[in-house]
Amino acid sequence: MGDLLEVHFLSKSFKAAGLDRQAKYLKAVDDVSFSIGKGMTFGLVGESGCGKSTIGKIITRLVEPTGGLILFEGLNVLNLKSMDLKQYRKDVQMIFQDPYASLNPRFTIESIIAEPLRIHHIGSRKEQRRKVKELLEIVGLNPDYGARYPHEFSGGQRQRIGIARALALEPRLIICDEPVSALDVSIQAQIISLLEKLQKELGIAYLFISHDLNVVKHISEYVAVMYLGRIVERSGWYSLYQDCRHPYTRSLLSAVPIPDPLVQKKRGRILLEGDPPSPLDPPWGCGFHTRCPAVQEKCRREKPPEEKIGPGHFCSCHFAGPSLPGEAGSSLSAAVL
Predict the structure, then answer these.
(1) What's 334's DSSP letter?
(2) pLDDT digits over 20-77, tens only?
(3) Helix axes 109-119 and 155-167, enclosed angle (nearest 10)
């Protein structure tokens, strides 16, 4: 399969007023590159504030980038205007994190789901009404729920409505921005299963944004880990979970709970000290060196380049070997599988 979406050297800085009235710039995304194949799921993982949601908004052109290139089937997305941009947004839709805030409480469910159809002038009112019923049924809701309002539904049902709205224009790529983080664990599993089912039936590609590596493992073929605006490691999901190389990825995996209490008790845990640096004043050299348990002098001086360490496996670390300086034993990640 060819690549549906290509992102090259993407960057985004936001202007922020300093206390001294001099303008400062917050670098939310810093030189990010990746690609998403047709019908595949690309997982983007990182803690809050790392820039992963900003990437999703840039791809949908809700936010304009500072630099970089985005190609959708070879078409330069950043040059699109007017009707071409409208067509692109038909092909690329978004599912938002908060299933209540993303739905207009004054609109009925039928109006919410049919709104993309009205904007793109697809079908008559009768055809739109029929389409809404079909979409509700596809996402596992009663097709007669169209006359109800968002407040009459649970969180999981509201997220299904958001998914139905995203499917209305038959997109080829859906940006899933933390789509299950606001839901209970049992409901998370239902939504993940629904997204997987829709992908198999409709051939949709996903950019799945999350802070939870355990959730991403169940849906993604390829995973990238972000820290302070940069991708620090990316690989196929099995390679990442079995043989992760970046110390930040290892710390994230060590925090994933294991259902077997004996394995959980024996496994190591990597605890990071301090808070992430401010994007307004990022550290020199490797952005992770202020919290890295295996930091060396070289990390403080030089920004590590992204290097290939295996088939489809890339890492930005000066010491991306099977073990880190001062570390004994093998990867902690195997127990997560």
Answers:
(1) G
(2) 566 688 899 999 999 999 999 999 999 888 999 999 999 999 999 999 999 999 999 9
(3) 20
